[in-house]
Amino acid sequence: MNSEHRKFRMRKPHRAAALTACAVAALALPATSVAGGGIGTGGGGSQTTSGSKAKLKANGKAIAPASAPKAVKRAIEAANSIDGAGYRMGGGHSSVTKRDNKYDCSGAVSYVLGPKGAGLVDRPMVSGDFARWGSKGKGNWITTYGDSGHAFVVIAGLRFDTSQPDDRNSGPGWSKNVDAGFANVSKSAARHKGGL
Fold first, then answer.
1. Whole-prediction pTM
2. pLDDT tens digit string along 86-101?
3. What does the pLDDT read at residue 40?
4. Which of 141, 3, 170 lies closest to 70, judged by CA?
5. Residue 10: partners with Cβ closer than 8 Å, 6 or more residues away
6. Cα(104)–Cα(63) distance, rounded to whole angstroms?
7. In CATH, which of 3.40.50.720, 3.90.1720.10, 3.60.60.20, 3.40.630.30 is domain 3-192?
8. What is the mean predicted confidence (pLDDT) over 188-195?
């Protein structure tokens, strides 16, 4: 068992319960206005929200801030597209351009930062690679955290991780709780690239 498995509690799939809870919550909540005058249901995609932080909707998808650079919006769209995919050690490492049905931590981060997302990496990276990627410190929009055992990314204020996402499902997902990621990787492991 690698250190990623030892450091955090593996999430149990509660997909049916989560879907039921989301459906009930969606019925109870009114639609949210988003920038551009449209009505958002939280599906992600090209929708945006006001402010400088991404918003996490009841269905577990993120909505990018209207003020975010295009690369950040693309990273959020890519993350939304694999949110809910299952977890598999080594998953997501065949290519950063091919969407897999299961991901490990670094495979998920590689996909989100790859050509289908932010366009910041051109090959799948293992978690230890993220410890040396880019420049030290937090980015303005995208910050990765990685060491030899785990990696996750914070995009526009939300954590995308295979460990303890808010939906409690197995595999990659979003969380408002950025600090929960530091149970697995040190805050000092923050890295960013370019002006993002």
1. 0.77
2. 999 999 999 988 888 9
3. 34
4. 141
5. 87, 170
6. 23
7. 3.90.1720.10
8. 95
